[in-house]
């Protein structure tokens, strides 16, 4: 299926191969699959209600190989995507994006888009708990990283500063997660830390 961005540019799916799939905790699942499973666990346990956001598309071409089936052949993204996940936890609005890098020493800021940073800041201003979930694939390490800290590096990059966040900075300002049987990614541990330290809030 051909999907295009609002500007008409063709979308490259960036599908993960078996080699790219991260063997996090020995399970060999992609980050998205692990987060979806974790969210399902949190909902079933009534700890939080958090979902992956659907991406709105405009369908422009459909084939009907059979009368009872429809195959989408071409579509366009209606609007640029914001962040990956949002929901509610203990009365707090939660909004975050999940990113990965194969780098070992730093996280490239080009993995974020300006509209995503703008969206996270808008949620932050409304009292939401906002963060980035950052995975270093080669190191098999995963962090909850506050948007307040992400903002500082983002602003510096716009002023001819470095274009990546050093791993040491993420270690210092973030919360490292460790895999469990259930949930696969216990990111609410990081959210509790953000709430306690106020690092994930507007005043963090």
UniProtKB/TrEMBL annotation:
Enzyme class, spelled out: hydrolase
Domain of life: Bacteria
Sites annotated Transition state stabilizer: 99
Cofactor (UniProt): Mg(2+)
InterPro entries xrefs: Resolv_RecU, Restrct_endonuc-II-like, tRNA_endonuc-like_dom_sf
Cofactor remark from the record: Binds 1 Mg(2+) ion per subunit.
Assigned EC number: 3.1.21.10
Catalytic activity: Endonucleolytic cleavage at a junction such as a reciprocal single-stranded crossover between two homologous DNA duplexes (Holliday junction)
Subcellular location: Cytoplasm
Keywords: Cytoplasm, DNA damage, DNA recombination, DNA repair, Endonuclease, Hydrolase, Magnesium, Metal-binding, Nuclease
Family assignment from sequence similarity: Belongs to the RecU family.
NCBIfam families referenced in this protein's UniProt entry, alphabetically: PRK02234.1-5 (NF002584), recU (TIGR00648)
Role: Endonuclease that resolves Holliday junction intermediates in genetic recombination. Cleaves mobile four-strand junctions by introducing symmetrical nicks in paired strands. Promotes annealing of linear ssDNA with homologous dsDNA. Required for DNA repair, homologous recombination and chromosome segregation.
Protein name: Holliday junction resolvase RecU
Species: Lacticaseibacillus hegangensis
């Amino acid at each position: 299926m051909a999907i295009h961005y609002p500007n008409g540019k063709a979308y490259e799916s960036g599908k993960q191969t078996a080699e790219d799939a991260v063997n996090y905790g020995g399970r060999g699942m992609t980050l998205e699959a692990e987060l979806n499973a974790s969210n399902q666990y949190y909902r079933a346990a009534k700890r939080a209600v958090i979902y992956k956001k659907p991406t709105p598309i405009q369908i422009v071409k459909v084939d009907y190989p059979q009368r009872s089936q429809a195959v989408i052949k071409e579509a366009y993204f209606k609007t640029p995507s914001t962040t990956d996940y949002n929901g509610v936890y203990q009365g707090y609005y939660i909004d975050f994006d999940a990113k990965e890098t194969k780098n070992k020493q730093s996280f490239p800021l080009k993995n974020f888009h300006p509209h995503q940073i703008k969206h996270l800041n808008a949620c932050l201003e409304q009292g939401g708990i906002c963060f980035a979930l950052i995975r270093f694939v080669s190191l098999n390490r995963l962090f909850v990283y506050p948007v307040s800290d992400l903002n500082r590096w983002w602003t510096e990059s716009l002023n001819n500063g470095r274009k990546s966040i050093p791993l040491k900075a993420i270690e210092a300002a973030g919360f490292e997660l460790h895999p469990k049987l259930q949930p696969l990614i216990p990111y609410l541990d990081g959210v509790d830390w953000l709430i306690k330290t106020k690092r994930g809030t507007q005043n963090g």
